[in-house]
Design goal:
42% of the residues lie in helices and 28% in strands. It is α/β, with parallel strands linked by helices and 118 residues long. The chain has one domain: Nucleotidyltransferase, domain 5, CATH 3.30.420. It has a five-stranded mixed β-sheet, covered by helices on one side. The longest helix has 17 residues. The chain is globular. It starts with a helix and ends with a helix.
Length: 118
């Protein structure tokens, strides 16, 4: 591993709430977990507009308060152009964003299916 990769990995620790967002045209889906993969709260469905972005922001801030998390990272797959507005909103709020390669998501999904079949 190189220095930059180690630096990225070190950003995620016990105090980090990880938000994964599935990007879509009109309605996004978000889930929250910690660095060990333990899920927090229920899945959030929110609209691809400012009202929905505020709903997401309030949702993960509430989860941070409930679970004593001080850091948030939002990961998303860059689906078409539908992620641009959400990314801009989050950056303006000072939230770290991780853009995830769609090929990596596909490989992880196929690995999970393989593991579930065993």
């Amino acid at each position: 591993m190189n220095y930059n990769q180690n630096k990225r990995i070190m950003q995620i620790n016990e105090q980090t709430l990880i938000i994964g967002v599935d990007i879509a045209k009109e309605r996004h889906v978000a889930r929250a977990q910690d660095f060990r993969g333990i899920e927090y709260g229920k899945t959030l469905y929110f609209s691809n507009d400012n009202k929905g972005f505020i709903e997401l922001y309030n949702w993960f801030n509430k989860l941070c308060a409930e679970h004593a998390k001080t850091n948030v990272i939002v990961g998303m797959e860059p689906t078409g152009h539908y992620w641009f507005c959400l990314a801009k909103f989050l950056r303006q709020k000072g939230i770290k964003i991780a853009i995830v390669n769609p090929m990596h998501v596909k490989k992880v999904k196929s690995l999970m299916i393989t593991l579930q079949q065993k």
